Amino acid sequence: MSSSQPYPLPAKTPLYCALEGKALLSTPTFNKGSAFTATERTTFALEGLLPSTIQTLDQQVQRAYGQYRACDSDIAKNAFLTSMKEQNEVLYYALLARNVKEMLPIVYTPTEGEAIGNYSRMFRRPDGCFLSVLEKGKVEGLLAGWGGEDEVDYIVVSDGEEILGIGDQGVGGIGISIAKLVLMTLCGGVCMLRTLPVILDCGTNNPDLLNDELYLGLRQPRVRGREYDDFVDSFVQAVRKLFPKATLHFEDFGLGNARRLLEKYRPEMACFNDDIQGTAVVTMATIIAAAWVAKVEVLDLRVLVYGAGTAGTGIADQFRDVVIEGGKSKVEAVKQIWLVDKQGLLLHSHSPTLTPAQMAYARADSDFVSVNTRDLTCIVRAVKPHVLIGTSTHPNAFAESTVKEMSTHVPRPIILPLSNPTRLHEARPSDVLAWTDGKALVATGSPFPPVTLGKTGKTYSIAECNNAIAFPGIGLGTVLSRADRISDKMLLAAIRRLAEHAPALKDPDAPLLPDVADVREVSKDVASAVIRCAVREGLARVAGIPKEEEEEGERELKMWVEMQMWEPEYRPLRKAGPEESSRAAKGELGVVRRA
Description:
Largest sheet: 7 strands, mixed
CATH class of the domain at 277-466: Alpha Beta
Shape: globular
CATH superfamily of the domain at 277-466: NAD(P)-binding Rossmann-like Domain
CATH architecture of the domain at 277-466: 3-Layer(aba) Sandwich
Helix content: 40-55%
Low-confidence stretches: 1-5
CATH topology of the domain at 277-466: Rossmann fold
Structural class: alpha/beta
Strand order of the largest sheet: 9-8-7-10-11-12-15
Mean pLDDT: 93
Oligomer: single chain
Strand content: 5-15%
Distance between the termini: 48 Å
């Protein structure tokens, strides 16, 4: 690759820092602990503040892993890792990177859900930006304290209303914003110094929180209507003004707000909703791989989605778009999709209770006159789906009768119980495989151990349909290309590239998705596909992206991406004066400039 190729986001250069002494040791983005070099200890007034032995990052990781293993529960491990992140971020990410498969369930689903549920009781140190609906006039000023327009690349915002299958967690929702950004850095290589977690505190309707004297958020019912919309808009417009190059990621908003906010702002800026789009991308990639194993054309699949909320309707929309791209009309594509929610199978007669996203898939009542549309087994008998997807958070909803009924109509049923955390899964993979004699193709929303069938002794690895292998690559590609929108074609490009990584394409008995241990390599490839699509659509806003699309050009593009991916390694520190330093270098992230 040409040495003159520019890298808009250099990730390998020295870091400039104006802090020294105790202030430096208390700043997790710059602190190296026992790994500060002799020169750095002198330059930054650290002599006498550290033990004399200078250690490597590997030695620090070894010690930290021993401390992690000494924790006696998953929530204790989560607390330990949170504490480490608050002390030394490079060490934190290095530890995670060397143990991704083991630690991802601790820092993300399912354990992070428990931590968020106990946020106010476990609180030690604030992280991120807290914005209150009672102070919407201050939003722009408070956001301005987090840096200039070239200092923030990726923002995750939540209002805490629908967190990880556990519902309204109010201000504790800051935890999901932080967790998603951990994955953006760990899996997507976006430098943590250039990310911002945000919580929009609009109150809470969770009675446990409202009655908890230790609850840290606004102790009032959730604000709705015009006041809510104005507050969210004040935030979005401030982001567009202050950080025009950043990508805005909406996370865990309630059913009544998630889709309409995405649709409102998506045409105007680079924004993304992981519950809708990220879940749909990773699920669609799973379906493509499963269809290949089952020897069924994707365009011919019948899909039944159990749980027609934000995730379920997002998956339905994504499947519809793939079928349309394959040459069918929108009307034909919609006919291949059935949604089930609280009302049972969604029908035209349910129109008054349906959201616009659900209404698009409602069926004529006359087509199901003789069907018990509130019984999943009866629905499966009528629909004969190839694919059954669970996004309901109803544990054990996929009963033996349902799964066996499905297997009588299709030789290789594709069954995806995606609800998380684990206790809310619609079915256990071990049961699904046993009920179908190993014929089912299964992926789950949370990690499950391999399943060995007693009849055959055959062992099946269970693919984890985890958004962590999708959204970091999409986000990285959007950040590096500075795309001004995230288009449908960019998402389709991500789906195709992710599906290409499915081990099942080489071995039909292998998992339907790549292992989370390989997520950095997957993210690099997904980002490359997203960037290439953004360039073709004229959405990229950065110069220097390798343009050739043949094999050599693709190699150059992947190198261009890789050179800008942050790695968990200590970079040399350079002393900088306050007048020439960024907010981060001065330890002033979040500080509001006052006249």
